[in-house]
Amino acid sequence: MIDGQYIPTAEEEQFPTITLEEICDILEDAPRMLILTHVNPDGDCIGSAFALKLLVEAAGGSARCVSPSELPKRLRFLMSGQEDMLFGEDESTDDYDVICAVDVASPMQLGDLSRIMDQVDFMIDHHGVGTHFAPWFVDETASASGEILYDIYATLAARGHFTVLPDAARRIYAAMVSDTGSFKFSNTTPKTHLIAADLVNIINTAEDGGMDTSDVCRSLFGQRTLKELTAQMLAIQNLHFYEEGSLGVVVFTQQMLSDAGLTEEEIGNVVDTPRGVEGVLVGLSIRQTAADLRQYKVSSRANVECDVSAVCASFGGGGHVRAAGCTIEADSVEEAEAMVIGAFAEAVRNYKNQ
C-alpha cells in the first residue's frame, strides 16, 4: 500500500480497478444482480450484502444474496426479503445481469461459489491482503465493507434515488458495529464514528416501525443461545498456549463438536476466547470442516500490530493486519495444528524482536 492506496500484485493486474461512481452507475441501470458472500459469513459480510440488495432495489433493480455456507442464526435478522441464501449446484447465473462479490478477499473464500468466479463483474472489499479475482474496489482504510456501502448509499441518495433508506442504514450499521467490535477494535477511525453518527440519526428517527440501533446491537451481541455458551465452555477447556503465553489456540474437531451436540455455526466467534486471555498477543481458532475432514478453517485475531494477514495469505487466505482467516488441508488434526502454530509462532517471535 502506498499513501493509503492498495497496490495490486503482478497476478492481480489482469483485473482493473473500478470506482465507486462506476459501481453506482451500474446500480442505476436497474440490473438483476447476484451478490456473493464468503464462507462462514460474518456481520459485516451479511449486513453489507443485504444493504447492497436494498440499494439495488431502491434504484429500480432486483437482487439476490447467496452464500457458500449456512447463515448463522444470530445474523438472519439482517436478511431482507429472502428465506434462503444457498445457491444450488443446479442453479444458473443466466437470470442475472450483474454478479458481484462483497467482503470477499480471495477466491478461496468463495467456497463452492468459486465455480462462478470467472463470471463476477466486480468485487467490493476492505481487506488489505487478498487476491483479486474480478475488477475491484478495495478501500483498505475502511473499517468494514459497511463503510463502503455507506458511501454507495450516500452517492445514490445524492443522485435522487431516495432521501433516506432506514432498512439499508440498519444493515450498514450492523456491518460496521460487527467488524469494529462495537467500535473497540483498532480499525475504528474518525470517519467510522462520523458515519455511525449519521446512521444512528437515520435509524433512530425512522418512523417505519423497524429496529433502532440498540435493537441491532442486542441482536448482534446481547443474546446467546445455550449452544453458544456450550461452545465457549468447550473452547476454554481446550485452550493451549505457546510462545510463553503470547499465542493462544483452541482447536475443534468434528468429533468434539458431535460429542458436544454443536455445529460449526455455533462456534463462529470462539477465536475471541484465546484472544481475551491476559498476555495473549495473537489468538487462533482451528476448526475441522464437516464437508471435508482434511480441511481446517483458521481464524486469527491480534491484540497488537502483529501482521496475521500475512500469515493467512501464505496459506491462500487474507484479511487485515489484526484479523484474518484462511483454510488449510492436513491429514490429521495434529498436523493441522502444527502447521498453523509453527507459522503464527514465527510471526509472534518476529513481532517481539522488533
Report on this structure:
- With 354 residues, this protein is α/β, with parallel strands linked by helices.
- The protein has 2 domains: 12-163, inorganic pyrophosphatase (n-terminal core), CATH 3.90.1640; 226-352, Diaminopimelate Epimerase, Chain A, domain 1, CATH 3.10.310.30.
- Helix content is 36%, strand content 16%.
- The chain contains 11 helices and 11 strands.
- The chain has helices at residues 20-28, 43-58, 145-158, 166-179, 190-204, 213-222, 226-237, 254-260, 272-275, 308-314, 333-352; strands at residues 32-36, 62-66, 98-102, 122-125, 136-138, 239-242, 247-252, 282-288, 295-302, 318-319, 323-329.
- Strands 6-7-8-9-11-10 form a 6-stranded mixed beta sheet. A 5-stranded parallel beta sheet has the order 2-1-3-4-5, covered by helices on one side.
- Strand 6 and strand 7 form a beta hairpin.
- Helix 2 runs parallel beside helix 3.
- The protein is globular and about 60 Å long.
- 45% of the residues are buried.
- Residues 1-6 have low confidence and may be disordered.
